[in-house]
Amino acid sequence: MEKRILQIRDGILFQHPYVVVFVLAMSFIVMDPFELSPVGGHDFRPVKNEIAPYQQVMDSWPWDNRSRLGLGSLEFKDEIFGPESLEFDSWGRGPYAGLADGRIVRWMGNDAGWETFALVSCNWSEKLCAQTKDSTTKKQWKLESKCGRPLGLRFDRKNGNLYIADAYYGLLVVGPEGGLATPLATHADGKPILFANDLDIHHNGSIFFTDTSNRYNRVDHFFILLEGEATGRLLRYDPPTKTTHVVLNGLAFPNGVQLSKDQSFLLYTETTNCRIMKYFLKGPKSGTTETVANLPGFPDNIRITEKGDFWVAIDCCRTTTQEVFIHNPWLRSVYFRLPIPMRYLARMVGMRMYTMISLFNGDGEILDVLDDKKGVVMKLVSEVKEANGKLWIGTVAHNHIATLPYPLENH
Asked: Mean pLDDT across the stretch 374-381?
């Protein structure tokens, strides 16, 4: 029997040498000994995602065939760098924006321009952190942990304090006059807050905020998506006791968070799973969650309107190949270990990112959809805030803000 096995083995080796070479080459690639792949040097452990079927979502989505988001105007081009979140204070001043260089800035009008309103790190200095237009490039990444990267911004309308979710410094607060922000929460349940992302303020003073991952920080956020890992958390900070509590854990890239107008529930986005989730704060379902909407792309921040509806920023779109990857983690493990730059790997599976924003009511019904397929306004969108008769659109990746009058004419 052993002799027969050896004969078969030798037959394969001599008759099909290309098969053997292919197997050996693939084994070498998967091992990635020289760390040449996009995931080289990382403990890359892909898992299966919990995501709605691709065809079901795409077939039912009300697409914007006019690319109306592309009608927006570019504001403050090359004056403001990676403004993810936008806010206005109780006196109508603003916008305020958290920048890629670690500052929170405030627009003071055409004469005065932008001023630095607050900092999240005592390490900040212009010489170290101010990369101007390069702040949204890789040049800034090595500095982020020192300079900070403010993401979510919210004003407490009662006292004028500005609360900040910083990707490296956790939850912070700064007074109405600005300055150096005070840290409030850097740990929860004995674990560090590795990637604070967005927040909202309950009328009782509690701060709900997201911690996107316990494995990867903001610089490495793309690995969260590639792995499909679900170590993110929804947290709550209690000001009277100065304690931070875990509300939900096991979340796949929890990102934007927004309380409803009556504070009976909050919505949060799960970027990896392309969906909006509802967490009930009152009523018979209190303490439970449910899916509100499945999306064609990857959601970021979510913001409420005066009417109580919700704008969601979406980086679009899912692909059929992604569907295969989602259900076959082993395939991701092989594919992303190929020694090819990520931008080419993405193109090879049909990924062509563009921006979309969508308006929902609290039950997940879609009220409006606007997209920008040609990237006229921006290719990555982070937040949509409706204020002063306009949509104010922030982006973590570009050096401008976009605005669009809303409602649109002939809407």
From this structure: 90
